[in-house]
Specification:
The protein folds into two domains: about 5-85, Thrombin, subunit H, CATH 2.40.10; about 90-130, no CATH class. It is about 25% helix and about 35% strand. The protein contains two helices and seven strands. It has helices spanning about 90-110, 115-130, and strands spanning about 5-10, 10-15, 25-30, 35-40, 50-55, 60-75, 75-85. Strands 2-3-4-7-6-5 form a six-stranded antiparallel barrel. β3 and β4 (about 35-40) form a beta hairpin. The two termini are about 15 Å apart. About 30% of the residues are buried.
Length: about 140
């Protein structure tokens, strides 16, 4: 039974499985307070600890996670990762807002509007922040 609401995303995510390992650049599928799901070109072992980095916004998002599951999917894998830190749920909510703002910024530019990231953020907050859930779950 799902405990958290998933929010679709298409942003890059970096996974580092061990100390000294290179980060693998993958694509985020969805994000929730409890963790995330991403596509991966390699399999991960359930229980494996990973360092997660989502390079979005000025500071980005970093958290420790544990692989909950890994399934073969469409010439690769989908990996479910649980957040391990106490404040990661709050950070995940902030990342989701930044993702929404960046998506809005790209939409505006695709429609021919030249707006800065800051202008897009101000517009998105004015239009959508009140409807954005206080908690993702």
């Amino acid at each position: 039974m799902r405990v958290y609401v998933r929010h679709p995303s298409e942003f890059p995510v970096e996974l580092r499985a061990g100390e000294g390992e290179d980060a693998r650049r993958e694509r985020l599928r969805d994000l929730s307070e409890g963790g995330l799901c991403c596509r991966s070109s390699v399999a991960f072992e359930p229980g494996e600890h990973v360092r997660i980095r989502i390079p979005v916004g000025r500071a980005g998002f970093e958290a420790d996670g544990r692989v909950a599951w890994c399934r073969a999917y469409d010439h690769g894998f989908r990996v479910g990762i649980e957040f391990m830190g106490d404040d990661d749920a709050f950070k995940a909510r902030m990342v989701e807002q930044v993702c929404q703002i960046e998506r809005y910024h790209r939409q505006q530019r695709a429609e021919g509007r030249e707006v800065s990231e800051e202008e897009a953020a101000i517009e998105w907050i004015g239009k959508y922040a009140a409807r954005f859930p206080r908690s993702l779950g």
